[in-house]
Amino acid sequence: MCYQVKCGTCGKSTWAGCGRHVASVHRQISEGQHCACRGWPGVAPAGDKAAAGDSAAGAAAEGSSSTSACTIL
Q: How many structural domains is the chain composed of?
């Protein structure tokens, strides 16, 4: 699980944890208070209208699709 922490470099809010819930942490932080010292995986850069957290929509917009399969041996 990811959670909000204070950046030791700039003092703004950033994230820590597994990396799978970064977008959720990003939404909880006020605009202008996001640390830029570290990346925000799954979060669209400011001004980008595409929802980075919705990879299926992004793939559909690009004309491709993603699938996954699991083979149990």
A: 1
